[in-house]
Amino acid sequence: MRKQLSDIRDIEQYLEQQLDTAGQRVFEARALTSPVLAEQISYQQKIIQLIRWLGRRHRRQQLDNLYQQLMTDETYHQQITSIFQ
Fold first, then answer.
1. Number of folded domains in the chain?
2. Whether 27 contacts 19, CB under 8 Å
3. What pTM, to 2 d.p., does this model score?
4. pLDDT tens, per residue, the chain with 85 residues
5. Measuring CA to CA, how many Å separate 17 from each of 11, 25, 71, 76?
6. Which domain holds residue 22?
7. How far apart are CA 29 and CA 40, in angstroms?
8. Rounded to whole angstroms, how far apart are CA atoms 16 and 82?
9. What is the CA radius of gyration of the chain?
10. How far is Cα of residue 16 from the mean position of the Cα atoms in its chain?
């Protein structure tokens, strides 16, 4: 495996807490001694946050679409609104 891909895998395992305690400590020591690795960790954290945000956004859109479909069904709409009256 290329070094860059290996580093990405290691960073992801660290950020997802998939390393044992010893592995975490070794990785943290590497990050402290390597500014490049520390920067890569920061970038990877931002990427993971963005992916999660986009996933939530996509899920929210799916739920909005489902809501719109359900509310166009007159019978369903009447049943739901009668519950909350």
1. 1
2. yes
3. 0.65
4. 588 888 889 999 999 999 999 999 999 999 999 999 999 999 999 998 999 899 898 888 888 888 888 878 888 778 877 888 7
5. 10, 12, 42, 45
6. 3-83
7. 15
8. 45
9. 22
10. 10
